[in-house]
Amino acid sequence: MSASAAASRKWRKPPLIKNPVLRWGLLLGSLAYLLLAFGSMEVNWSRVYEGLDRGGRFILAFSQPDFVSRWSDISAGMLESIIMTITSTAAGIIISIPIGLGAAKNIAPLPVYIICRGIIAVSRALHEIIVAILMVAIFGFGPLAGFITLSFATIGFLAKLLAEDIEDTDRSQAEAIKATGGSWLQWINYGIQPQVMPRLIGLSMYRLDINFRESAILGLVGAGGIGATLNTAFDRYEFDTAAAIIIIIITIVMCLEYLSGIIRRRVQ
Amino acid sequence: MAVATNKSGQKIWQLRDRNAQLTRWFAWFVAVAIIMYCWQAISEQTTWFFVYDAPNIAGDIMSRAMPPRWPYINELWEPLWDTINIATIGTLLSLILAVPVAFLAARNTTPHQIFCRWPALLIIVSSRSINSLIWALLLVAIIGPGIFAGTIAIALRSIGFCAKLLYEAIEEIDEKQVEAIRATGASPWQVMAYGIVPQIMPTFAGITVFRWDINIRESTVLGLVGAGGIGLQMQSSLNILAWPQVSLILLVIFLAVILSEMVSAKVRGAII
Fold first, then answer.
1. Are B88 and A125 a contacting pair at CB < 8 A?
2. I want to staple B38 with a disulfide (CB 3.0 to 4.6 A). Which of A73, A83, A107, A179 is the partner?
3. Nearest CA of chain B to the CA of A254: how many Å?
4. Which ranges constitute the DSSP H helices of chain A?
């Protein structure tokens, strides 16, 4: 073999996308898009520069968070957030089980399937805050609106994943229960439920965690929880109080994550 | 054995024995008691008259909101474009920041178990626990309202999510391939580029598209706190109680989210 042939056979890393037209097309397309997108983004750099000072103060506030001066507001808001989290997760699980059953292709008839999938799609597409605005308009200010919002959001999450899990279950076990002459309820209870229970528990714990995080923002639109206190703290530039609230939120989320990790390991 | 006997001495099958059953009942009792207590706390703060009146109000809002004010759509294209930009550029920025964090947080690539891994994990947890709206609130207070604040908020919120999934993927890579590259005498950077990166590339692409899809949904509401996007239009429509505009905006958001979810599912299907 000649030297030039050997040199041209130098190894090269294979590209991620094989088709060269698609590869270059995607690259050029994304470049064009990025140019357009950055072009339409107006950044007021002098304002940003002014704000850096305030940003620095906010970061400094974390070194001396002020838990004391607004403690009554913080504790009331936190308690309300926790209460909303617990009730809405419980209600969400109870409602999403039948909807999850209905949205599983292998056990539900087609009309039920379509209706349940529709509910899930609507619940997943609308952000919690949007639902909360509507609920506050309908039910008035307070934690009840937050409770309904979070329960509704839980349905979309839990019912979808539960339905997917039911669709993945082992058919033969369910078939065996049916063969013994079990009723529909017994079929679900002994054929399907034991197969999906560990995952359902794990997902519920995860959703408890998410609901707590979401409950922290519902207060922005008047649906109860710590968000209202946080918003006020930001509006008044009381960064030390805001830092205290954020630290409490992070701590609770970490504890919940740790707890849910333990529970998930035990049931799986 | 979890077997009970009835009066005539016949054995009956039971799932659990008595102690397990009692423990279960007790756990259920405690859980229900906590939930009832919490529910009572909510109930005390609720004006039940409004709730009884809710169906009427909901019907009233519906009748005002229908039909949507279609001509208003011409004013929505620009905010919609901004919303998509916030999500896309925010996702890109977060990836640039998330990749090093993920490499620092993964057990098998971190330079130091305590001084590098723990700070990285702290960044991940704090970014994940704080909602993008709170980040937006904060950034609007610091750098002023606008798209830029929204983009940074989305980026900050996504770092934790992307870095967490990515470092879990890095921890699960096949060590043999890394070993093979190292055996050829490759430098640490070459080991990373040829041993680790090709293994996590599909996961990385999947995470990107998945987070982009979530970010589209999140960026639709950032406007409510002044951080740009279609939420601004919604806020101003809500303020003047222009329900036909609100319903049109909700419809646009719904379609955008469904569309982005479809795109993301397609792309992920193509990658994996």
1. no
2. A83
3. 7
4. 3-8, 20-40, 45-61, 71-102, 110-125, 128-139, 143-167, 171-179, 184-186, 193-218, 227-235, 239-267
CATH class of segment(s) B73-271: mainly alpha
Among chain B residues, CA nearest to A87 = B35
**Fold (topology level) of A71-267:** MetI-like fold (1.10.3720)
pLDDT per position as a tens digit, B111-167: 888 888 888 888 888 888 888 888 888 888 888 888 888 898 999 999 999 999 998
Question: pLDDT tens across A209-239, in order?
Answer: 889 988 888 888 888 888 888 888 888 878 8
Does position B108 have pLDDT exceeding 90, yes or no?
no
Asked whether the beta carbons of residue A139 and residue B51 sit closer than 8 angstroms, the reply is yes
Domain ranges of chain B: 3-46, 73-271
**Residue to test with chain B: of A13, A144, A147, A204, most B Cβ within 10 A:** A144
- Contact between B78 and B257 (Cβ < 8 Å): no
CA distance B21 to A32: 65
Asked if B254's CB is within 8 angstroms of A126's CB, the reply is yes
- CB-count exposure of residue B54 (10 Å: 0-12, 13-18, 19+): middle
Q: Which residue of A has its CA nearest to B133?
A: A217
Q: What is the ipTM of this complex?
A: 0.79
Confidence of residue B1 (pLDDT cuts 50, 70, 90): very low
Where b means 16+ CB within 10 Å and e means fewer, B8-45 reads eeeeeeeeeeeeeeeeeeeeeeeeeeebeebbebbeee
- Select the residue of A16, A43, A216 nearest B201 (Cβ to Cβ): A16
Q: Which residue of B has its CA nearest to A220?
A: B225
Cβ contact, residue pair B138, A242, below 8 Å = yes
Sorted by where each begins, the domain ranges of chain A are 71-267
For residue A93, pLDDT beyond 90: yes
- Interchain pair B42, A83: CB under 8 A: yes
**CB-nearest partner of B50 from A48, A82, A140:** A140
User: What gap in Å lies between CA B199 and CA B201, rounded to an integer?
Assistant: 6
Question: How many Cβ pairs within 8 Å bridge chains A and B?
Answer: 155
Spatial separation of the C-alpha atoms in residues B153 and A214, rounded to whole Å: 16
Query: What are the φ/ψ torsions at residue B101 (nearest 5 degrees)?
Result: -60, -45
Cα distances from A177 to residues A147, A193, A196, B12, in angstroms, run: 38, 12, 16, 18
Which phi and psi (to 5°) does residue B3 adopt?
A: -130, 130
**Lowest mean pLDDT segment, chosen from A168-177, B24-33, B97-106:** A168-177
